[in-house]
Amino acid sequence: MSLALYVLDVPEFQPVVRAAEAAGLTTQHVGDYVELRTHEPEAVLRRDGAVIRAAVWHAALTGGLDGRIVSFTSDTLHLAKETG
Amino acid sequence: MATASPSARPRAGAPTLRVNGVDHLAYVTWKPRATVEFYTQALGMPLVHAITANGWVTEDYPDFVHFFFDAGAGNRIAFFYYFGLPEESAPSDLMHRSRHVAFHVDTELELHAWREWLKASGIRVTRPLAHELIESIYFDDPNGIQLEITRPLRAMSDIDARDAELTVRALADVAESPRPSVESLWRRKAELIRKSTEGAGL
Fold first, then answer.
1. Which residues of A touch B137 (CB under 8 A)?
2. A22 touches chain B (CB under 8 A)
């Protein structure tokens, strides 16, 4: 299983898509969502450069996640593949 | 994992049964003078109705005054003042912020004008905070009830409703698990998205 997150395809979450692209994740439309996926074991999304309010950044995973959260701060979102 | 999903849409067969907005929200006040002054003077809501009674519904119901302010668009906010009722302690900060009332304005200009007016009226008010769909200012009424004035950043649409349906399905599933967490909700939602899109042949 690769690491993936789903972002609702609405304007306020586009910065999350761009932050994921900058982190090397691939993008694909899946229904109402943009699926952001990587085969790497980990991914770090950075809020710098993404013009997004903190209140929205903290909802970045509201579309869903295949993986686990290593850390989720106001600046970075560190994700990893699920283990076990 | 629970198998039954909650029904997140109105039941078929009763399509004409739909309430038409909020008639009134009701709260309890121990400060009637300050409440009337705040809602009429600071928020510009006319006092439109009041009921006074010695008891109601049950034998031990306290004597009361129930008064209503017009919040626009047919909506009202109302207060009970109960005679002889001991004042309750304030809710926790989290509950205070959670149980709030948000009033609607249409434009950014109106939102900023409200903020300036409230500040000029001596009311502590936050800076505008943008969330997903709305931008809001927050302040308290004299009873410690958190109020919000908000304006839309974009229209709420069908995509939001479909997403909400998946979110509450995932929530209902994980909330019944031994250790509910937002991370488990997000994992469950990803599963539901994949299932729903596979079902649609995508």
1. none
2. no
As annotated, the residues of chain B forming the CATH 3.10.180.10 domain(s) are 24-85, 89-155
* Structural domain B24-85, CATH architecture: Roll (3.10)
A70 part of contact set with chain B, CB < 8 Å: no
A81 touches chain B (CB under 8 A): no
Closest C-alpha among B38, B172, B173 to residue B101: B38
DSSP state of B11: P
Per-residue pLDDT at B190 exceeds 90: yes
Assess whether pLDDT exceeds 70 at residue A54.
Answer: yes
Residues B90-103 pLDDT 10s: 999 999 999 999 99
B86 touches B103 (CB < 8 A): no
Please, what is the end-to-end C-alpha distance for chain A in angstroms?
11
The CATH number that domain B89-155 falls under is 3.10.180.10
Q: CA of B186: which chain A residue's CA is closest? A: A64
Q: What number is the average pLDDT over the span A42-71?
A: 90
